[in-house]
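Wait, mind explaining this?

_____
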Amino acid sequence: MTERLWGILVDSFPKILIPGLTLTIPLTAVSFALALVIALAVAMIQFANVRILKEICRFYIWIIRGTPLLVQLYVVFFGLPGVGIMIDPIPCAILVFAVNEGAYSAETIRAALEAVPRGQIEAGYCVGMNYLQIMRRIVIPQAFRTAFPPLSNSLIAMVKDTSLAANITVAEMLMSTQRIVARTYEPLALYLEVGLIYLLFCTVLTRLQHVGEKKLSTYLTDQT
């Protein structure tokens, strides 16, 4: 029994890992990159305090943060075809993950932007900079250092959240594991195995986060 189980685990490892490297990681990277674009735009609109646009952004954040990610996936993938909008599984997952994470990251970036002292913005105006120059040269670099740790945590969380894409037929690591379980009837061992692979991915990202934080800290020290 032990030899059979060990053989299943050894055989299944590459079958789970390869979808992780070829789909889970790229899905996370593309979704998070788009989420950062959305988050930065939404955060800057709120920071600029343009009333109508700010209210639209607050409504977007309220809706996304107030509903489960899985429900959002179901609405887009299973619900929209009812009104004639068909989206393939992978583009659907990227869209939903990006929009969902964009709402959370927007609040992180907004808080980081507001943490920059107003006196530095006023100083920028005094030396002849316009608003965009102040944002690009003064506010955003400082805000980025503040936002980097929570944004890194969000990236790590997204790696795990991609497992929800199995519910809309995306053949990532969890779905690959489910298919092996259906054939071998060894759910405990195989789900522990995929959990360890997720842990491996997240551990690597955590190490990269620590390296990034040290570099940013060194840069800040050099600037001061």
Summary: The chain has eight helices and no strands.
